[in-house]
Amino acid sequence: MKVDLELLAKLEKLSNLTIADDKREEVVSQLSKILEYVENLNELDTSGLESYFSTLRGGTPIREDIPKSSQEISQAILKSAPQAEDDFFIVPAIIE
Description:
The protein contains three helices and two strands; from the N terminus they run H-H-H-E-E. By secondary structure, it is mostly helical. The chain has a domain at 1-40. Strands 1-2 form a two-stranded antiparallel ribbon. A hairpin with a 2-residue loop joins strand 1 and strand 2. It is flat.
């Protein structure tokens, strides 16, 4: 995949970010380097590995999922959001 200014414009739109004109070439270069690094993973021989892998003996420990009952945390987070309504973030649609 080639990263160019056209792809960067699409990424800006999808991420709802704006990159300054003087930083655009630098960001394209950085994204290209990141993709080159990730493409190196295709060269790894994973044929002898199981489809799952864990560094923990016995797998990942399971814990009970207990939600926090305090509304203060979510209210504080929603206050700093650009747009929020009825305890939800409002974000622009990205599917056209």
